[in-house]
């Protein structure tokens, strides 16, 4: 379709190049004159969205690599320093981390679209298989990227996923050792993952070129599923498809920005704000959401090897789709049965995803097995069978006919189906959730925070009082090692002046050296110094605190969370509720009780806390009324202390939160206006095509 | 050409080249075309459609430009680096006459020389006119502390570190391409264009300076 172009640039310089390297002709025939079916709907814009996301991930990734240190001892800190100290580092990191999720979100829609409209059918088999290869590469890249921050989930995710290969008979152990470069996941593993995480996106880009090439040879599929025959069926790629894609992209950017600026940790796991600890596995190892359906399949099968095989088979089976479904009709629009089974399959995938995040016990295991069977049945039984027994409705003669037929009815059956499915899926999930409401954990009560919501700001007074509480109480046991004294004068913080921060720093004794005599010495703190730790090392901290090292508090409000069940986690997305961590920290500070309730025994050296998982906490009740003398007349109660110190710790965890929300508002205003402009531009341009 | 199917003049934005290539675009027809097609007629009579396309294009350019900035600014020194570049204090008591020390400030070597009478004499007796980068010795030291020369030890040619007490002028000699500096750190010979830079510093007491 995109044969040799007769395109000639008018500019003589360009023509000179064109004669020697026909690149302008190539671009012109591929992206300008290239005929696209005129009936493409917005599901087709996800191709352009994915191209953009790949570019975004590569650009932000290259930039982050300029600041990241791939070393087991330094990686976690270097990521924190990117977020805290690098200019716009928080923005770039959020773009990259949320970008991975957006990339997968878009690719899933792209894949489901291909599935629904039969885009894998003759002559697009190679195009489809190349797509599956891209998807596999994306999964590998995403996984290795998730390891790089070297938090607890990074480390244990790496351990679990690499151990999948130990299921290989005979060679399993050797393969895993090879992957690790050591006896366990460690620094060599991190180094090679960094190298490969940098490499693979470019491999993806290469396969994307092949994917687009194959697309341009076969031509695009379309909602009617009939090939373009005459010029009436198509419009030029530029401006028609380009402008529509750009409108799609600008709308997608709004969705993406919601995460970057308002919900950066919504899709992440709080546990990954705890530095990797090879000695402790987190209670629930959960992969990133985009792997969850496959993780659920893995866990549904009680045999190690079969489980791993099933998990990989669930992806590889997509490659055989063109031959499993041999129906001549492409689009499910004209396949009444296939359409219904498609939506059932979508629900199965979503439910598998939900199950992948649940603990593998009781009803979840059974549900997981049933859904795993459904997943494979769709490919191995339903599709082959349907292509033989189903009588499809007649397809339109041509794309032009399809467009003409559509102009009459404006209803959107697709949208209503999606909504119906979502409600149904939601109810199912909700049922599953309430079936599990035992546990006995008390959810921390929701507090009112000045920093919540899209316009949230830190209450300066509370941050200053919280600093006082930290200094006088918490600092005896807890370090704050990511916060420097200079940060106290940063905008969006406690609001001290540079001089006040310097004076504050000078009250501390900082170990420095060696000096010219080779000796360590103590000197007064400077603004550039970080808060000193109360213990010289972790062992000392452990020994002094009954065996439990008090955690560093810099990130505590982001590193702690509690389960927000269905439907809360969906509502949270719209209300921008992000304060699980602060709510939990306050609850812990206030949750101590002298006498445990009847029937609860607390071991020697531990204390009862209503909100602590398991209720036995090693930290004694840290705060009591009147303990810290406030100078601004605020009440000196435990509740006030807890509230203030949590506000302070929210600031230490996210010092640029105010900048993030402020920039977010500007970006939103811009993107919404831009999308409106794009919408009308698109309408004007397309007015010519009808 | 597919895009001309509905008549060349009506093909919208993005095709000015192609339209030019198609040749004869009747001016009257182009009025119905797009403002982005920069023929005189449509530029002279902007229509609502022109405005829409121009506004959208302008918004896209503004958005793209604003997006580029964080990607450039991230290359600047980060807050930790800037904070680590705070002023430092150096105690001068251990430096005997005729000796010098090298300290680091902001990653740069700083030479602090305790000059002898002879060295000061040498620096002050040179006629300014014979210097490639004329500057008096008095202007390069703090008055009342004339024996102390504080210079950034980075050759102004291409950034190597000159060796102290070497060369023909009893000052600094750069081994890279042979630049020679005198006892005031001024360039005397060789490819370097300028004198060794004097960092910002002040005496906090007679025996202590603060650099930065
Ligand atoms: S760098 Fe010193 S002479 Fe070239």
Provide the gyration radius of chain A in Å: 29 Å
Low-confidence stretches of chain B: 1-44
- Give the overall pLDDT of chain B as a whole number: 81
Order of H and E elements of chain B: HHHHHEEEHEEEEEEE
| Global shape of chain A | globular
Please give the CATH architecture of the largest domain in chain A.
Up-down Bundle
Descriptors for this entry?
heterodimer, A: 690 residues, mainly alpha, Cytochrome Bc1 Complex, Chain C, Cytochrome Bc1 Complex, Chain D, domain 2, 3 domains, two-stranded antiparallel sheet, 25 helices, 3% strand, B: 212 residues, alpha+beta, Rieske Iron-sulfur Protein, 2 domains, 4-stranded antiparallel beta sheet, 3-stranded antiparallel beta sheet, 10 strands, elongated, disordered N terminus, binds FE2/S2 (inorganic) cluster
Written account of the structure:
The complex is a heterodimer of chains A (690) and B (212). Chain A is mainly alpha-helical and 690 residues long. Chain A folds into three domains: 34-285 and 664-690, Cytochrome Bc1 Complex, Chain C (Up-down Bundle); 303-401 and 419-439, no CATH class; 460-483 and 530-655, Cytochrome Bc1 Complex, Chain D, domain 2 (Orthogonal Bundle), CATH 1.10.760. Chain A has 25 helices and six strands. In chain A, the strands form three sheets. Chain A has a two-stranded antiparallel ribbon. In chain A, helix 23 (580-590) runs antiparallel to helix 24 (638-653). Chain A starts with 11 loop residues before the first helix and ends with a helix. Mean pLDDT of chain A is 90; it is low at 428-439. By secondary structure, chain B is α+β, with helices and mostly antiparallel strands. Chain B folds into two domains: 2-73, no CATH class; 83-211, Rieske Iron-sulfur Protein, CATH 2.102.10. In chain B, 27% of the residues lie in helices and 20% in strands. Chain B has six helices and ten strands; from the N terminus they run H-H-H-H-H-E-E-E-H-E-E-E-E-E-E-E. Chain B has helices at residues 16-22, 27-30, 40-44, 48-73, 79-84, 117-125, and strands at 88-91, 100-105, 108-114, 148-152, 163-164, 170-173, 180-182, 187-189, 201-205, 208-211. Classes of the chains: A mainly alpha (690), B alpha+beta (212). Chain A binds chain B through residues 7-10, 28, 32-33, 35, 59, 63, 66-67, 81, 84-89, 91-92, 231, 234-236, 238-239, 242, 484, 486, 490, 526-528, 670-671, 673-674, 677-678, 680-681, 684-685, 688-689, and chain B through 1-3, 5-6, 10-15, 17-18, 20-21, 49, 52-53, 55-56, 59-60, 62-63, 66, 70-71, 73-76, 78-81, 83-84, 86. The site of FE2/S2 (inorganic) cluster has 13 residues of chain B, from loops. Residues 155, 157-160, 174, 176-179, 190-192 of chain B line the site of FE2/S2 (inorganic) cluster (FES).
